[in-house]
Amino acid sequence: MNRSEQIYFHKLKKEVAIPQAMDDRLEDIYTQIRNGQIRMKAPDPDMQRRPASRREDTREGTSESCFSVNRGFSKNAVWKWTAAAALCMIFLLSGLCFANPAFAKDLPILGDVFERLLENRANSLIGHKDQTALESIAEHSAPVDEAPAAPENEASVTNLAEDAGIVMTVSDAYCDGYDLYYTFSVQTEDSEMNQADYLLMLRYEEGDPFPYGSIHGSVNGYETEVTLQGSEKSGDGAFVSLARINFAELTREMLAEEMTVELEIDGVGAHQTDLVSDTMAGYKTVRGNWKLRFQVRMDTSNNRTALIDSEQNGFRVQKAVQTPSNTHVECTVPEEWAEKGLVFILTDDGGNRTHVEFTRYSRQDDGSSLYDISFYRSEADHLTLQVYDKNGTAQGQGDIPLPLLAEIPLDMTAGAVSD
Questions:
Q1: Which of 29, 22, 42, 24 has the alpha carbon at shortest distance from 161?
Q2: Any residues with CB less than 8 A from the CB of 243 and at least 6 apart, and which?
Q3: Owning domain of residue 374
Q4: How many CB atoms lie within 10 A of CB 386?
Q5: How far apart are CA 209 and CA 408, in angstroms?
Q6: Is the domain of 271 the same as that of 384?
Q7: 57 burial level (CB within 10 Å; 0-12, 13-18, 19+)
């Protein structure tokens, strides 16, 4: 843990008064437990400490930041990514609901946590979310709505779930049509679990004794990938994090203005930063079954979309979209480069670079590939997309010693349309 992280964690533990509005919401949630709407299950006595196992990480290094955890990654790769992300993304959005008010009163309020996170990111070249994006997500977030009851006697599934002595809550959410972010909190009175610096939510597959650092998720009934940061300790017995669902794998027909999100978690692994291990189970794992369901409303009113249709050397940009959280660029890559190693660089007129969060692509019928590139947030009116050959060499040619394949200007003001 570096110096800035130590200072951040120290500040995060300071006690800040919780406003009356939050107390009221906390009491509403706690009433559900007292009334038996959510039932506690006993912890699994068979699940005890796991010995740490080590696996070699064979991935090749990359100069680009990859936010998403693809299903094709090895479990060890997922663990490496999640452990790093756990140190980067810790904050509360407005009105976070915790099941135990006694614990909740030890937590800082929204502005205080955000202020500390932004101070950390101010001195960082690249984080898992930059300052302006974090501010925008907080500004445009809203409390989640309780989703309609599902059939087959699942009416009790809401945005709060409790099992094996652990309470999980989804509170606020933000959705711009490309990404869905939501806050996620975990509470337990287990003294061993509370010694953790962060908790990982786990998924188990049948016949596999080793857990994945991911969870089951769906939007409107369609299975989707959920990127959930490690839940960092933010008070006595409470852990908080930010989760993200990217809609790149979902078609527009699968989405709607109001969407129902369902999550299922199979276990929780407790981790300490000074106990490095290649297992996601941690020094203690609690198995259980936590199902959550909530409703979010898509808001695209703050998106700015530009139809670019600009081409160079076979690389064509069709569209670019600036949202409160990200900048998205759609680029067609010619067949000869469709599956080669490419580096995408986005800069504004001042030469300021907006870093990549993740890249996805799909093959087209003509052999080309359509790349969906998600960059960090940029408000610039004029941007430039550069495409480089990652495996090539071009010493002495600019700041990036790689062959430049295409350089395409993006005018976000010309031909702009509402999303």
A1: 29
A2: 181, 182, 183, 184, 226, 227, 228, 229
A3: 304-417
A4: 19
A5: 48
A6: no
A7: exposed
- How does residue 192 score in pLDDT terms, banded at 50, 70 and 90? very high
CA 362 to chain CA centroid, Å, is: 22
Nearest CA among 88, 87, 85, 106 for reference residue 96: 106
Contacts of 59 (CB under 8 A, 6+ apart): 73, 74, 77
Name which of 349, 352, 312 is nearest 331 in CA terms: 312
Identify whether residues 293 and 321 lie together within a single domain: no
Write the pLDDT tens digit of every residue in 14-26. Answer: 444 445 555 555 5
Please indicate, yes or no, whether residues 214 and 67 belong to a single structural domain of this protein. Answer: yes
What is the tally of structural domains in the chain? 2
- Residue 195 and residue 190: Cα distance in Å, rounded? 9
pLDDT category of residue 261 using cuts at 50, 70 and 90: very high
Question: Does residue 153 belong to any structural domain of this protein?
Answer: yes
* Amino acid at position 49, single letter: R
**Does one domain contain both 144 and 18?**
yes
In a domain, 193, yes or no: yes
In a domain, residue 52? The reply is: no
Same domain assignment for residues 267 and 310: no
pLDDT over 60 (residue 290): yes
The pairing of strands 284-297 and 142-143 is unpaired
CA 61 remoteness from chain centre: 22
**126 belongs to a structural domain:** yes
Q: Mean pLDDT, to the nearest integer, of 34-48? A: 49
Domain with residue 368: its CATH number is: 2.60.40.1640
Query: Across the strands, what pairs with 321?
Result: 305, 328
Residue with tokens 């409303």: 297
| Sequence-ordered list of residues with C-beta below 8 angstroms from that of 217, at least 6 positions apart, any chain | 223, 224, 225, 226, 245, 261, 262, 263, 264
Type of residue found at 5 = E
In a shared domain, residues 269 and 331: no
Residue 236 makes CB contacts below 8 A (sequence gap 6+) with 103, 106, 194
Residue 159 DSSP class = S
At 185, list the tokens: 């909190």
Gap between the Cα atoms of 75 and 211, Å rounded? 8
Place of tokens 């979310």: 129
Final residue of a domain: which of 265, 297, 329?
Answer: 297
Over residues 254-269, the mean pLDDT reads: 92
Same domain, 165 and 202: yes
Lowest mean pLDDT among 148-162, 280-294, 333-347, 349-363: 148-162
One domain, residues 373 and 249: no
